[in-house]
Design goal:
By secondary structure, the protein is mainly α. Helices cover about 50% and strands about 5% of the residues.
């Protein structure tokens, strides 16, 4: 077996008082991956917001946006129901 998932059953949670408490390696990996995905999502939203803020007002107006709406539209989608999460 080439996977290390069988080698380590659990890693003790730092700061825990109970000796039997632990977080599984798979749970730890899943949590780390979720944190990375969230960081990537937030970085992409920042890039999109910065890019739209560079656009001139007449182009934003053509799309039906004002500068004050950019943050909302980037975060939530055009009509407030973006297909995320």
């Amino acid at each position: 077996m080439s996977s290390l998932s069988h080698a380590v059953e659990c890693i003790p949670f730092v700061g825990s008082d109970a000796p039997a408490s632990g977080i599984g390696v798979k749970q730890l990996a899943a949590h780390f991956i979720a944190l990375l995905a969230d960081a990537r999502r937030r970085a992409a939203l920042r890039r999109a917001r910065r890019e739209l803020l560079k656009w001139p007002d007449y182009l934003l107006k053509d799309m039906g946006l004002s500068r004050s709406e950019i943050a909302w539209v980037v975060e939530h989608g055009r009509f407030g129901h973006a297909s995320r999460k």
